[in-house]
Amino acid sequence: MTKEDLDLYEILDVSKDASQNEIKKAYFKLALINHPDKHAEDLKEEQNKKFQNIVFAYSILSDENKRKSYDTTGQVEENEFVDPEEYKAQLTAQAIERFKTEYIGSEEEKSDLLRIYTACRGDILRIIDEIFFGDESQIDRYKAIINEAIEEGRVKKYRSFEKNIEEKLQKRRKNIEKEAKEAEEAAKKLGISTVNNEDELVALIRSKNSSKEDKFDSFLSNLEEKYAKPKSKRQKRK
User: Fold this and answer.
1) Do the Cβ atoms of 190 and 223 come closer than 8 Å?
2) Which residues, by range, are in coiled-coil regions (predicted)?
């Protein structure tokens, strides 16, 4: 029995001639976005299936021999067993930090930024929330990239862009302060008696509002690294 209905390249949103680095980056992005643990309970089953397909596609395309076989036959044997839990364990703080280093300042980030800018119609706060590893400290850099694209006619200028930014940021900070108290309750539920540093606090806040990639990776980076047991990365076969 074969998985004829799965297009592995389409699942990872990469071309058939994609390099291993491109495949790995696509996997990290999609795995972070679609990780079941960052979605509401009623969506977990659906997201779990999606995550499993992403993991399965990566397990084949990241292996030179399996990829060559798939490219030749267009099929993957059903008995090619992959344990998603092993791949979840690979989304470690160190791996995500490497991805972050490669992503920030890259052409891929610029492309994502302009796409999000257009989708958000210039709303700077939404841009920060949607872009990978978005942060207030990066606003000037984001603005420079977007303004250059506006001048070159690659994107439209929206009236909301650069309007009342400081006022919007102040409101955002107040909301974060309010959520900090809620994060302390979340810490207790997670079995953490105290929040030892700002990074851990921010991770808890972000995990409660998990609507984008770096919110989950911050949670993962600060908590999974401390409490999750490492799993074998060896793929299993029946």
Assistant:
1) yes
2) 162-193
